[in-house]
Write a structure and sequence with these properties.
Blueprint (H helix, E strand, L loop, with lengths): L1 H36 L9 H26 L16 E3 L5 E5 L4 H4 L46 H7 L13 H18 L2 H10 L1 H4 L4 H12 L3 H14 L6 H13 L1 H7 L3 H14 L6 H4 L8 H15 L3 H4 L13 H18 L2 H11 L5 H15 L2 H16 L5 H13 L1 H7 L3 H15 L4 H5 L24
Antiparallel strand pairs: 1-2
Helix pairs in contact: 1-2, 5-6, 5-8, 8-9, 8-10, 12-14, 16-17, 16-18, 18-19, 18-20, 18-22, 19-22
């Protein structure tokens, strides 16, 4: 401790001696400058010696000034290459001794010159710092400092990565109840207009919202078709085929059939033939290549309810019959307007003949509805009148009159269709009478019976043709012309 104190005081004495010596030299230089500039009297002694001493003093003064100029150009308030020595007392040029170690000099503290010794005399920080400055040029464009821990902070790497990021719209998935509410009206409208493309476009717009509930399209379609006519079931099979690989997949169809097989216990309450109908749908889907044939075999030994077994058995029988895949195109029968006219005529004639044999008006009415040809009911009126003429029996007249009266009162046959059927008979009477000579008499008798039942108007009765003038007296009328007495 004593050694360190002694060394410290020794350094102070050395610095003090240096400072005093520098002051003496400054006083000599100042006196020399005054003597050179002024007109002071020369000192005592010889003139040459005085001149020589003055020249030497002047040269020494110039050297000291250069030395001081080099020292004053650098800051002594900081440590460094040109600063004060660490541990030495700070000194101010021309000032008193500072007793505080490493104390900065106030005259150099606020200096605007470079402290490195290599500056060009420009403002500090390019004019961007200090009191009363406007800031660096363009600093107003710089972003303020952002805390990296801020939730909204985004680094440059993340910003560059976001340039290649694609943001997709998020569509909420519909629940099963919402899917049913959206699909049911669409299917019911399809049963009316038979436009599969409209259903396809609508479902494609809903595809993102359907999500994993696409299979419900098939299940809802089949459930609604079970409550409708065979023609609607045919439309349902066509729609399944058209939606396949566009809206629904093979897995969706299989999942729908699996769901319906498990719900047969409830479906049979509203549709007693539900197992039979579901079997037809499965067989038709296999024929349309919507599901593979192994779908039926995969349920072997894995079915618990008898209704599901009956449905699978029905589908297997349809697929096992000869040319089954070809025949399955007509598994629902051909829809009303799609059927050929000759086929419909044949069905109507068979219907009337069965009615004449059984006399069951309800069965005949049900068979007529199953044909699903309301626009073709005038053909039934025509065929009924032709059968009456060919039969030439009053019992046939009475039975046909009751059938037409029942169909007219139940609004299955309209008055316009009744008129079209009788007018067509009137037009073909010349051809009918060739095969049935007493056709006019039978027609007259049947028309009067129908008029009495209230299904024919007086105008239609007056349009009924008659044979006209008789050629031979032997026919019993004496050659006179019959008059329309009604």
């Amino acid at each position: 401790m004593a050694a360190n104190s002694h060394k410290h005081f020794q350094d102070l004495n050395d610095d003090l001696g240096t400072i005093l010596t520098a002051r003496k030299i400054d006083q000599i230089v100042e006196a020399d400058d005054e003597s050179l500039d002024g007109d002071a009297p020369m000192a005592n002694g010889s003139g040459e010696g005085a001149t020589a001493s003055m020249a030497a003093a002047a040269a020494q003064g110039r050297l000291m000034r250069k030395h001081r100029k080099g020292q004053r150009a650098h800051s002594i308030s900081e440590e460094g290459k040109f600063g004060s020595t660490k541990g030495a007392a700070g000194t101010a040029p021309g000032g008193p001794l500072s007793l505080v170690p490493n104390a900065p000099v106030r005259s150099a503290k606020n200096s605007k010159k470079s402290r490195t010794g290599f500056g060009r005399g420009l403002p500090k920080k390019g004019g961007a710092g200090g009191k009363g400055t406007w800031g660096k040029l363009g600093c107003e464009l710089e972003l303020p400092w952002v805390d990296p821990n801020d939730p909204n902070y985004e680094s440059e790497q993340e910003a560059a990565a976001d340039k290649t990021t694609k943001i997709a719209a998020l569509a909420p998935e519909m629940s099963e109840e919402d899917v049913r509410k959206a699909v049911e009206p669409l299917i019911l409208e399809y049963f009316e207009n038979s436009d599969t493309m409209e259903v396809l476009y609508t479902l494609q717009e809903m595809l993102m919202n359907l999500g994993s509930h696409r299979w419900m399209i098939v299940s809802i379609l089949i459930e609604l078709a079970m409550d409708h006519k065979p023609s609607h079931r045919e439309l349902a099979s066509i729609l399944i085929s058209d939606l396949y690989q566009k809206v629904i997949s093979q897995r969706d169809i299989g999942k729908a059939f699996d769901y319906l097989l498990s719900q047969l216990t409830d479906l049979i309450l509203d549709t007693p033939e539900a197992p039979h109908v579901l079997g037809n749908f499965m067989a038709r889907a296999i024929a349309d290549d919507c599901i593979p044939p192994k779908f039926i075999k995969s349920y072997k030994g894995n079915v618990e309810t008898d209704y599901a077994k009956a449905s699978l058995r029905r589908a297997d029988n349809l697929l096992s019959m000869k040319h089954g895949l070809v025949r399955l195109d007509n598994v629902w029968g051909v829809g009303g307007g799609i059927r050929p006219v000759k086929y419909l005529i044949k069905k109507i004639v068979m219907l009337l003949k069965e009615y004449l044999c059984s006399g069951d008006i309800q069965e005949a009415t049900l068979c007529l509805k199953e044909l699903e040809v309301p626009h073709f009911h005038h053909e039934l009126v025509y065929e009924a009148v032709v059968l009456v003429i060919e039969s030439m029996h009053e019992k046939t007249d009475e039975a046909m009159c009751k059938l037409l009266q029942s169909l007219f009162r139940s609004f299955i046959i309209t008055m316009d269709q009744m008129r079209k059927g009788f007018e067509r008979v009137y037009d073909f009477m010349p051809e009918i009478v060739i095969d049935v000579p007493p056709a006019y008499e039978v027609l007259e008798r049947f028309v009067l019976r129908c008029r009495g039942a209230g299904i024919l108007t007086d105008e239609l009765v007056r349009k009924m043709p008659s044979r006209g003038r008789k050629r031979f007296v032997s026919e019993g009328d004496g050659g006179r012309v019959k008059e329309n007495w009604w």
